[in-house]
Design brief:
Elements lengths: L2 E7 L4 H11 L6 E7 L18 E6 L4 H9 L6 E3 L11 H11 L5 E9 L16 E2 L15 E3 H7 L18 H11 L4 E12 L7 H20 L4 H20 L3 H19 L7
Parallel strand pairs: 1-2, 1-4, 2-3, 5-8
Antiparallel strand pairs: 4-7, 5-7, 6-8
Amino acid sequence: MLISLVLATVDRTAMVSRFLEALEGQTYHDFELIVVDQNSDARLDAVLPECADRFRIIHLRCERGVSRARNRGLGSANGDVLGFPDDDCRYPPDLLQKVADSLGSHPLWHGVTGRCLVENSDRNHAGIARFGQKAGVLTPLGIWTRSSAATLFVRRQVMDQTGLFDESLGPGSGTPWGAAEDMDYVLRVLQKGFTIHYDPDLAVIHPSPPSLREELAYQRAFTYGMGTGRVLRIHNQPFWFVSQLWFRAAGRAAISVLRMNPRAAKFYFRSLQGRVLGWLSLESRAK
């Protein structure tokens, strides 16, 4: 079972090196790495050759946009299974083995997904995703606590029938909708009738999100909220569920005010703004 890993990357070198080291340490070796390089310089030219004799690396270039890059990489993927690691994540040594074992022993599953574990988080961070603790089949309303691109692995037939990522969504897209391209993709997969299984023991390690001391944290809260709201609207998810997500962000902002934590309050308010405005955006999906 060949696993193709499509890695979209921009502006990072050290973390890409760390990811490559994690791949070297995998107990499962039947994989290839497709690096879709969106840098304007040649920063990866000195990094990738170091691993070229240990596993197959395909080095491509692409304009900015995570969805655009993944689509570019999928065109060169040879695998039976496709994965989409982030360029700042790290795989535990047995991750790919777990993926291969799960799909190999459950032929009716079309894919698996798991958790993101955040390292080194503290009270100066907010918006860390909370993943479910129980294994089970993904549902359209359950994906928000049971899925992310970095932990998603699907069989090739899923891509063949679902199509590519929506390039109007996600970081670098050039639109206001700076996230949730993975949620949009999973929802389209489920609409096709495919079965994706969530396993909390299948985990990918991520660094902490930007500190609330950084303006980037508030920018991301808004643009990520915009993407989330947009995808909720595209897929006509029930308004009771949409409003629940709004009230959750509003509640966290209010609690932060009561705790005299203005940074956290600002973060959750910006997230709420994005979710509402993203849901209200009425433009049709990009073709």
